[in-house]
Specification:
The complex is a heterotrimer of chains A (about 260), B (about 210) and C (about 290). By secondary structure, chain B is mostly helical. Chain B has helices spanning about 1-5, 10-40, 45-60, 60-75, 75-100, 105-115, 120-150, 160-170, 175-200. Classes of the chains: A alpha/beta (about 260), B mainly alpha (about 210), C alpha/beta (about 290).
Chain lengths: ~260, ~210, ~290
């Protein structure tokens, strides 16, 4: 199974009743299982851009293609079942068990019960939770970190080839966040999923990203691998954002990145 | 008390009729209030208008509404049935709205993003979580309807109201007491049963 | 799904609505007006029909003659006890007729012609309207006849019901026929409470019916209709022609018991309900057992 390619062509979303745009003329392409971080301050349009991919937000202009299919042309429900979706508030279904939550997309797709049960256990293992302990728990019995792990498990249950994550670790404390980031790198390395990850945290961006898309005011400032943002910042905004030229910051960001990945050995 | 003691079967029979009337009216009212409430819940700007209109209707004195209905529908079961359905709308629709809009929006967003159709979101996420509030609304509506249904005795209908209004006409206070007491007991019993149902639906499905 | 089932139940529940009838379409619907005697007689009719094996539904406590007639015409009720005098004056708007047989003939003929309503056999009981007072007031104000009251009215307070002030054979008719009757004060009460006003001294005269139970119990005095203003008021079962044609046994059953209701029986039953606080159903049952 090949990871999806996601292509943006001049994607534009307008704010209703205003001539300002939430996102404007966004064009880039990603795929091959890479983890692309959409980085920017509040209101820069990064969430809007993310949610345009699975059509939670409709485009006003331009196109988005997932595996060469125009997202505006295909059935929205089917599109979303093939793309994983994780949000900051997690949104686990409170009236269902952990197992039922994780199993939701496979259930919608009509998988048989035994396959689903096996997959649930497999996913709990993958996100670092003991299946026997967690299978029948309810969301209210979970800590923030546990809940988000299950949110991720739920998103990838049906083996989507693309994954959308909207500030998924923003609601947990720093210690848990680091653990989750490490888990994510490990998981994304194992799955073949192209991942779009939204954050405003520069630190997080550098830890996780294969490439970073810096957004401001609905427009792309720069797209590059992390090191290049330091070496060749294209705008003053980017330069200030990453403290380009400041060696201490450079070493801090890149060191954090290596640390997270190095620990996996 | 003495009428109750002397005619237990008659009172029980009227109470059964009363309950049947209220139950039928509740079912019909729900069939209307569920789509109405859903409609209002999905449209935040219209919701106050819908609920406000229903609330205004609710303030119409029941006797006045009944008089109008009798002119159109005649006497007996029909006018009191329709009146009950109309009055129940406000309480039921309001709780449908409260229940649906009270569902965690993050869960609805996650459900949408994961690929549930609107009807699947409604049936699998919103409705199960709105159920306790809904049942609460049914409970409140049922209690009110048990009271309003006593007016049925005024328009040749059925139920405990017959006892009350006959007692008024014949000035036999024992009848009035019997009818009122039975209606109160009915309301208490219905309240207890529905509270239990409410509590059961709040409990999580499945165990640890 | 939940919705479809609920809609189906709603339609089932609404079906009686469409038929305009209550739960059971095969039942005979017996109505009554909103006073004790009407309840008792209607209950007698209802139980007689039930004893003959028919299913009966009771729509008692109807607010007035007009409501009862309207209910008959809409088919909401099938029969109820009506008075010849009330029908003559209140419904047909004709002059009162004192002769019971003549009154009956007129109303029976016209009701059949215009309303499709059949008058079954009348009872001997004659519940005509009256004015009542206490023995004390009768003595102190020298009242024995209606003419006496007509003259003395400016010093008298009347307790009555709304219908009496409106119906042509009520106060308006008395004023026209006798002259006078300009009461010092007129207050309307609920039909059940007006005697209490009389007994508590809040009124001097009360409108009444000659078979009211209170008359016997409280020893009230009926003022004599010396100039024969009031019509005969015999009660009879009035039935919708359509249901009578469909079920002629209704006529047989009701005619049989109608002839047994005398003045005396009526007063006794009324007293039993009003004073002894008995259920009209029990009183009617007792009456039927004796017949």
């Amino acid at each position: 199974m090949n990871p999806s390619t996601i292509r943006f062509e001049r994607a534009t979303v307008r704010y209703p009743g205003s001539n300002r745009n939430a996102i404007e003329e966004i064009s880039f392409e990603c795929g091959g299982g890479e983890l692309v971080v959409l980085l920017g301050p509040s209101g820069c349009g990064k969430s809007t851009l993310l949610r345009a991919v699975n059509r939670l937000v409709p485009l006003d202009d331009g196109h988005i293609f997932v595996d060469d299919n125009n997202v505006s042309d295909v059935d929205a429900v089917e599109l979303r079942r093939g793309i994983g979706y994780v949000i900051q508030a997690v949104g686990l279904f409170a009236h269902m068990t952990v197992a039922q939550n994780i199993a939701i997309v496979p259930t919608l797709l009509g998988w048989d019960r035994r396959t689903i049960a096996a997959r649930v256990d497999e996913l709990l293992d993958l996100v670092g939770l003991d299946p026997a302990t967690y299978r029948n728990r309810h969301p209210r019995q979970l800590s923030g970190g546990e809940a988000q792990r299950i949110g991720v498990a739920r998103a990838i249950a049906a083996r989507p080839r693309a994954l959308l994550m909207d500030e998924p670790f923003g609601a947990v404390d720093a210690i848990v966040r680091t653990a989750l980031q490490r888990e994510l790198i490990r998981i994304v390395g194992e799955l073949k999923t192209t991942t779009l990850f939204v954050t405003h945290d520069v630190d997080e961006a550098f830890r996780l990203a294969d490439r970073i898309v810096v957004l401001r005011g609905g427009r792309i400032e720069q797209i590059a691998v992390p090191e290049e943002l330091f070496e060749r910042p294209e705008t003053g905004y980017v330069r200030d954002l990453v403290h380009a030229g400041d060696d201490v910051y450079r070493r801090y960001f890149l060191h954090g990145r290596e640390l997270l990945r190095g620990r996996l050995q | 008390m003495s009428y109750l003691a002397a005619h237990p079967l008659r009172v029980a029979g009227l109470a059964a009729d009363h309950l049947e009337l209220v139950a039928l009216a509740l079912i019909a009212a729900l069939a209307l209030a569920l789509p109405l409430g859903l409609f209002a819940a999905r449209r935040a700007r219209l919701a106050p208008w819908v609920l406000g209109t229903l609330g205004a209707i609710y303030t119409i004195p029941s006797l006045a509404l009944l008089a109008v209905l009798v002119r159109w529908l005649g006497l007996g079961f029909a006018p009191i049935f329709v009146a009950l359905v109309v009055y129940a709308q406000f309480m039921l629709a309001r709780n449908v709205v409260a229940g649906i809009t009270g569902v965690d929006p993050a869960q609805v967003d996650a459900a949408r993003g994961l690929g549930m159709s609107p009807s699947q979101i409604l049936m699998r996420v919103e409705f199960p979580q709105a159920l306790p509030v809904l049942i609460g609304g049914v409970r409140i509506a049922a209690i009110a309807m048990i009271a309003i249904a006593t007016l049925g005795g005024y328009v040749g209908g059925v139920g405990l109201g017959v006892l009350i209004f006959n007692g008024l006409t014949l000035h036999q206070s024992q009848m009035i007491v019997a009818g009122s007491l039975a209606a109160s007991l009915l309301a208490i019993a219905v309240d207890a049963v529905l509270r239990l149902a409410e509590r059961l639906t709040r409990e999580p499905a499945g165990g640890r | 799904m939940n919705f479809t089932r609920a809609r189906a139940l709603e339609l089932i529940a609404a079906a009686p609505l469409l038929g305009g009838c209550a739960f059971d379409p095969s039942a005979v619907r017996v109505g009554s007006k909103n006073f004790t005697e009407s309840f008792v007689i209607a209950e007698i009719y209802a139980q007689a029909l039930e004893r003959a094996g028919m299913r009966v539904e009771r729509l008692f406590n109807l607010g007035s003659t007009q409501i009862a007639i309207a209910a008959m015409q809409r088919g909401n009720i099938d029969c109820y006890p009506e008075y010849t005098g009330t029908a003559l004056i209140d419904v047909l708007h004709l002059a009162p007729i004192s002769d019971p047989r003549k009154a009956y003939a007129v109303v029976a003929g016209l009701f059949a012609q215009h309303y499709g309503i059949v008058w079954l056999n009348p009872s001997p009981m004659n519940d005509s309207q009256a004015l009542a007072t206490t023995r004390a007031v009768a003595a102190s104000k020298h009242l024995a006849t209606l003419s006496d009251v007509a003259r003395a009215a400016p010093h008298l307070r009347l307790a009555t019901i709304q219908e009496f002030l409106a119906r042509p054979d009520g106060l308006p008719g008395l004023q026209r026929f006798y002259g006078g009757f300009a009461f010092r004060e007129i207050r309307t009460y609920d039909i059940a409470l007006k005697y209490r006003a009389l007994l508590e001294g809040k009124a001097d005269i009360a409108s009444a019916f000659s078979t009211d139970g209170a008359i016997a119990i409280d020893q009230l005095v009926i003022l004599r209709d010396d100039r024969h203003f009031w019509s005969a008021y015999n009660v009879a079962p009035v039935v919708r022609k359509a249901i009578l044609d469909a079920r002629p046994q209704i006529a047989r059953v009701l005619n049989a018991i109608s002839s047994a209701i005398t003045d005396r029986a009526a007063q006794t039953m009324n007293a039993a309900v009003e004073n002894a606080q008995q259920d009209p159903a029990d009183v009617a049952a007792t009456f039927l057992r004796r017949e």
